[in-house]
Amino acid sequence: ARNETGLPVITEIMDARDLPIVERYADCLQIGARNMHNFSLLKEVGRSHLPVLLKRGFSATINELIMSAEYILNEGNMNVLLCERGIRTFETATRYTLDLNAVPILKAKTHLPVVVDPTHGVGLREFIPQMSIAAVAAGADAIMLEVHHSPDLAKSDGEQALVPEMLAKLVPRLRAVANAVGRDL
What we know:
TIM Barrel
C-alpha cells in the first residue's frame, strides 16, 4: 500500500508473536481498543522502533489510557500517539459517544500527540465531518478517518467510511478550523 499510495502504513497488532513480521512492513503499530489493557502486548510494542497508535477502549477512563501508554513508554518507545475513538454511554443514536473532553485533558496531562477517530466514535458517515471539525477545534493533533471508494461494498466499517469526495471537501474545512484556533494541520 505504501508503494502504491505513498502513504505510511498503520496496522493493528493483536498478538506479540506477529510483531517481527509486522515491523518489516508497517510504519506504525496500532493497538486497538480491545487490546488497550493487554499489558504484555503493550510491553512488547514498547520495545519496538516503530511509533504506536494506542486506541482508548470504549469503557476505559482517560487515566487508564494514560497508564496503558506508560507500559509502552517504560519499555523505551517514546513515539506513542493517544487515540480517542469513542466510549460507551447510554446514548444509542450513535455507535459510541466521541469523548472530545478527552482531547484537551490528554494534552494537559501528557506530552503525547492526541489523535481522534470520529469514524468509530460516531459510526455514521453523515455525522463524521462535523465531529472531525469539532475534534480539531478541541485541539486534536490528527484525525483518523475511514475512507472507501464504495463503502457499501466494504468488507467492514462501510457505514462509517467517508467516500473520497467527502474527504476532499472536509480537508479544507479542517484546515480552516485549525487556522482559526491558531494551529496547523
